[in-house]
Amino acid sequence: MKLGSTILYQRIPSFLSWVQRFVLKTPYSHSSIIAGFMLNNDIELEADIKVRLHSYGHSDKYRDVYELVDDVTYAVAHDVLVSIRQEFEGETYGFISWPAILIRRIFEIVLPKKYSVKVKGWDILWGWGVICSELVWYFYKAVADAMIERGFERWTIFLEELLTYNPNLFHPKDISYLLNKYNNLFKRRG
Q1: pTM of the complete model
Q2: CA distances from 95 to 11, 26, 46, 60, 98 (A)
Q3: Does residue 129 sit within a domain?
Q4: How much is the pLDDT for 147?
Q5: Count of domains in the chain?
Q6: For the purposes of burial, counting CB atoms within 10 Å of the CB of 43, is it exposed (0-12), middle (13-18) or buried (19 or more)?
Q7: Would 69 be classed as within a structural domain?
């Protein structure tokens, strides 16, 4: 896997994973970022109990991997990961986001479509801690900023859409949607 690849965890056999998948109507319940390599193991940056690095050790059947396109160099991915790690490592997991995401989901269901699309940007609850997909949101924002600064304007449209989401309410289904919509910026690893 390339540095900066996004891992979306799917159908993990646990109750909490099932609840998230059921509420969000998605196979995904967790996400992380490949942040390095050590011997034959990938190292991932994720938010579980807290934001941290650790060895990646999950079965291929429980993951989908999306790599950044080739114009995102190793140096760009590395620099962004270093800055994200410095900013967030050690932060506790933001459990408060779970009820906030549930509130978002309820309003997306009950509001008419033209109003429900704006719910993803609401400031429902204040931020406390960092959840896995929120960490990915900050990573994507930093990559997009770095690429735009280097003259890759095609990242501008992605960044504009990313900014419509409140990072505290960003969840794995949102990640999946953006990765597939912007398949000129991210490619699924077979």
Answers
A1: 0.90
A2: 20, 20, 14, 27, 6
A3: yes
A4: 97
A5: 1
A6: middle
A7: yes
Categorize the per-residue pLDDT at 106 as very low, low, confident or very high, splitting at 50, 70 and 90: confident
Average pLDDT on 110-129 reads: 79
Is 28 inside a domain boundary? yes
The DSSP result for the chain, as a single string, is --TT-EEEEE--SSHHHHHHHHHHTSSEEEEEEEEEEETTEEEEEEESSBEEEEE----GGGEEEEEEPTTS-HHHHHHHHHHHHHHHTTPBB-TTHHHHHHHHHHHHHHS-HHHHTTGGG---S---SB-HHHHHHHHHHHHHHHHHHTT-THHHHHHHHHTTS-GGG--HHHHHHHHHHTTTTEEE--
At residue 25 the predicted structure's pLDDT band, cuts being 50, 70 and 90, is confident
Q: Report the distance separating Cα 24 and Cα 182, nearest Å.
A: 21
The pLDDT score that the predictor gives to residue 58 is 63
Per-residue model confidence (pLDDT) at position 84? 96
In a domain, 1, yes or no: no
What phi and psi values does residue 58 have, to the nearest 5 degrees?
A: -100, 150
Reply yes or no on whether the pLDDT at 165 is more than 90.
yes
Per-residue confidence band for 190, with pLDDT thresholds at 50, 70 and 90: low
Range of the domain at 112: 6-188
Nearest to 72 by CA among 139, 117, 136, 15: 139
